[in-house]
Design goal:
Elements: H1 2-9, H2 13-24, H3 28-36, E1 45-50, H4 57-70, E2 75-81, H5 94-97, E3 107-113, H6 125-134, E4 139-143, H7 154-157, E5 160-165, H8 172-176, E6 186-189, H9 197-206, E7 213-215, H10 224-231, E8 251-258, H11 262-272, E9 281-283, E10 288-294, E11 299-305, H12 311-319, E12 322-330, H13 333-343, E13 352-353, E14 359-363, H14 365-368, E15 373-377
Parallel strand pairs: 1-4, 1-5, 2-3, 2-4, 5-6, 6-7, 8-11, 12-15
Antiparallel strand pairs: 8-12, 9-10, 10-11, 13-14, 14-15
Length: 383
């Protein structure tokens, strides 16, 4: 077994996978291998991720792994799935959901079937965690089945437990509070761009649970860095939202109107209303042609798709010409983005350069009450 142990410690993924199979199948070689690896375990941080079905646990685990890899850390993932009544094997297929990591030798992923075991873990989960720890993984993440209040076994195995919840649970919170709610070291309100996220966060905070509450939109990676920071011991104060912008400092910059043709639209605004259009511009990043029309303060921005596959082109195809977005000018775009990310808002792009050279970011309608919002850096107040 010394040769197998050496191969595993040196990062041989095939040897590690074979050893994991021995553990799951109660193969006598597993005990001999763990004896050969004795003394190497006990160094990895073990993180448990639990919560009800549909909360987005696998997506969050996937994003946590990405964040850890950016930090240069190696990661082991144990995804515990319900068992097939026919084969006894795992049926949800977390390995398929996380298959983008397979080319990364710094991540090892293993699904385990519960095979009838209660408590959210498989019978051999703890042994597999020990194997990954002994193999040199810096962090081992264990995702439980997601069956509800009985999933407390993870608290005995993990150093930190993340309980993932989503808006819309309603009375389901009461149903599970006696179980997994009590073992949380951190609550994550995932899918925070859905209605009810703020209320769920307030309910968790008001209930007196000792664990902090953070919001994420795991599909977009929003809020994941804050979750990692909390798991790595950064104080909760580090995630407090920045102060709001001073009253009166946010101004309407323009209304964006999607049109099929700039020339046709200008005939109305310029020739019929007498608005003077500024120079036309093409914004390459957005694949649009634009014309600005001053209107006594805020402006009107006419937007024509430069290419059919642009976002505006698709907007026109789906909804037709009309109001596309509202643009607000803010005194500090960076601070505004930090507040939005802390609140779990869904951003559609990183800061880019728009018409006239201004820096901008779009915020998804799901986070703004139904209107696509553009935030623009006010260069007159930004130093």
């Amino acid at each position: 077994m010394q040769d197998w142990a050496r191969r595993i410690v040196e990062g041989d993924a095939r040897a590690l996978a074979r050893a994991a199979t021995w553990i799951e199948n109660d193969d006598p070689r597993a005990a001999a291998l763990m004896e050969a690896l004795a003394g190497r375990a006990g160094h990895a941080q073990v993180i448990g991720v639990t919560g009800p079905p549909g909360a987005g646990k696998s997506t969050l685990v996937d994003q946590l792994a990405r964040g850890l890899r950016r930090q240069g850390k190696t990661v082991g993932i144990v995804a515990v799935d319900p068992s097939s009544a026919v084969s006894g094997g795992a049926i949800l297929g977390d390995r398929i959901r996380m298959q983008s990591h397979y080319a990364d030798p710094g991540i090892f992923i293993r699904s385990m079937a519960t095979r009838g075991a209660a408590g959210g873990l498989a019978r051999k989960t703890a042994a597999l965690v020990s194997l990954l720890d002994a193999s040199g993984k810096d962090v081992v993440i264990v995702e439980t089945v997601g069956a509800g209040q009985a999933e407390v076994e993870i608290a005995k195995l993990a150093g930190k437990v993340v309980v993932v919840l989503v808006p819309g649970l309603g009375d389901d919170i009461q149903a599970i509070k006696a179980g997994i709610m009590e073992i949380a070291d951190l609550f994550v309100v995932n899918k925070a761009d859905n209605p009810g996220a703020e209320r769920l966060e307030r309910e968790l905070s008001a209930a007196g649970w000792r664990a902090p509450v953070l919001r994420t939109i795991a599909t977009d990676g929003v809020g994941v860095e804050r979750v990692l920071a909390a798991l790595q011991g950064e104080p909760p104060a580090a995630s407090v939202s920045p102060s709001p912008a001073p009253p009166g400092s946010v101004k309407i910059d323009h209304l964006g109107i999607a049109v099929e043709s700039l020339e046709a639209a200008l005939r109305f605004y310029r020739d019929q209303l007498g608005l003077a259009a500024g120079p036309r511009e093409t914004v390459e990043g957005e694949k649009v042609n634009v014309a600005m029309l001053p209107a006594g303060g805020p402006r009107i921005e006419l937007i024509e798709p430069a290419e059919p596959d642009s976002a505006v082109g698709k907007f026109l195809e789906k909804r037709g010409a009309g109001l596309h977005h509202l643009a607000l000018k803010v005194p500090d775009l960076g601070a505004a983005l930090e507040r939005l990310r802390a609140a779990g808002a869904r951003l559609l792009n990183e800061p880019g350069q728009g018409a006239g050279g201004h820096r901008y970011v779009f915020v998804h309608p799901a986070s703004t009450g139904g209107v696509l919002l553009e935030l623009i850096q006010d260069e007159e107040t930004h130093h």
